[in-house]
Amino acid sequence: MNLTPKQLEVVNLIRECRSIHGYSPTMQELADQLGVSKVTVFERVQALIHKGALTREANRARSLSIADSFESSSDVQAGLAMRFPLVGRIAAGMPIERCQDNDTLDLTDMFGPQIGQRGETFALQVDGESMRDEGIMDGDYVLVKKTSVARNGDRVVALLADGETTLKTFFKESDGRIRLQPANPAFKPIIVEECQVQGVITGVLRSY
């Protein structure tokens, strides 16, 4: 089932409304949320019904629903594959306490449904400027592949002995200690005897 981004937007709004309120939006409500005319919404809905993504009961208000066959289709699975658990904020400055939020970062909202595969990946929002010179800015999102192993030069999420986490570049020194190197001369390296690598940065996302 090949849907356009605008058609997927309609489906997502209907799914969200049904999840939150227990009923589907009206055509006018969809038009208001999308910032288009009611006629345009009607045309998109009709196309979705024709493609088998939506169903609707005649002469009944709020009767739009998502077809069961569509919910298990590749379009939906591709979208779900790009929804990562957003587990907190990561310090790119001084370390901060580890946190975990029950939230997600949905890349389909930012980049569309065909960006890649999820795998063992989670997202963190950057808080601080210590990785600035590597292009990781305050407020950016980083995608982190879960792993406990890092090589020299990897940008990692490191859990320190005091329970704090930080985002830095990993180096194993000749004396066995670990240097967590910032990418901003205003910050000093963190030198530790040991730390727990929780993941390696695989991507940086910035929403303008």
Sum this structure up briefly.
The chain has helices at residues 5-21, 27-34, 38-51, 68-71, 74-81, 107-111; strands at residues 54-55, 65-66, 83-91, 96-97, 103-106, 121-127, 141-146, 155-159, 164-172, 178-181, 190-192, 196-205. The protein is of the alpha+beta class and 208 residues long. It folds into 2 domains: 5-72, Winged helix-like DNA-binding domain superfamily/Winged helix DNA-binding domain (Arc Repressor Mutant, subunit A); 84-205, Umud Fragment, subunit A.
Structure description:
With 208 residues, the protein is of the alpha+beta class. The chain has helices at residues 5-21, 27-34, 38-51, 68-71, 74-81, 107-111; strands at 54-55, 65-66, 83-91, 96-97, 103-106, 121-127, 141-146, 155-159, 164-172, 178-181, 190-192, 196-205. A hairpin with a 5-residue loop joins strand 9 (164-172) and strand 10. Residues 111-119 have low confidence and may be disordered.
Task: Catalogue the unreliable spans.
Answer: 111-119
CATH-scheme architecture of the largest domain: Ribbon
Q: Encode the helix/strand succession as letters.
A: HHHEEHHEEEHEEEEEEE
Radius of gyration using CA atoms only: 22 Å
Q: Which structural class is indicated by helix and strand composition? A: alpha+beta
Sheet bearing the most strands, described? 10 strands, mixed
What count of domains describes the coordinates?
2
Which descriptors apply to this entry?
two-stranded antiparallel sheet, 2 domains, 208 residues, ten-stranded mixed β-sheet, elongated, 12 strands, single chain, Umud Fragment, subunit A, alpha+beta
